Amino acid sequence: MTCYFSTxxxxxxxxLITPQVKAEKVIVYREGQLVNPxxxxxxxxxxxxxxxxxxxxxxxxKFVAAAAVAxxxxxxxxxxxxxxxxxxxxxxxxxxxxxxxxAFDSADILxxxxxxxxxxxxxxxxxxxxxxxxxxGHTDAVGSDAYNLELSRGRARAVRDYLVQRHGIDAARLKxxxxxxxxxxxxxxxxxxxxxxxxxxxx
Length: 203
Fold this sequence. Notes:
By secondary structure, the protein is of the alpha/beta class. The chain contains 5 helices and 5 strands, in the order H-E-H-H-E-H-E-H-E-E. Helix 2 (37-44) crosses helix 4, helix 3 packs antiparallel against helix 4 (114-125) and helix 4 (114-125) crosses helix 5 (145-167).
């Protein structure tokens, strides 16, 4: 009986001490869906911290006017009939996922991906100047692990280079990482096209 209570006490202590890790919430954009620079700034402007998972600050208020101008410019360049991914339920999101289209078997960004990347760049420009954005490359599970890992790294670097060269974002603010097929979107088929994506985190 004493052994039972000792085991129970240890199990309870472990449950109380072990930090509760929340599943990451990612805003997943579809191809052709408008990206709102205000949403980009709000999500990437949050600071991720193990100790402060629920206390991430909102985007700085001094950038609201500039964000409105950026949004107007972006909206003027994009078809008014396209759906906009804007939802109050996205308030606790910590990352954005874009279905960036690349040429087959390469890291060459196709023209179809540029509108979303351009809007993303407008949102990054609204962040505090020293803020860092991590650009993550992801693939589906077709092909070998090693091939997909290298492809995802190359594609993350290609997106970084696009943001630097086309939009003048400081390269030092953009970190890149490739995860290959290791991190499929939750509840998705690892071979599904939705896993061929580029994700963005603020830090």
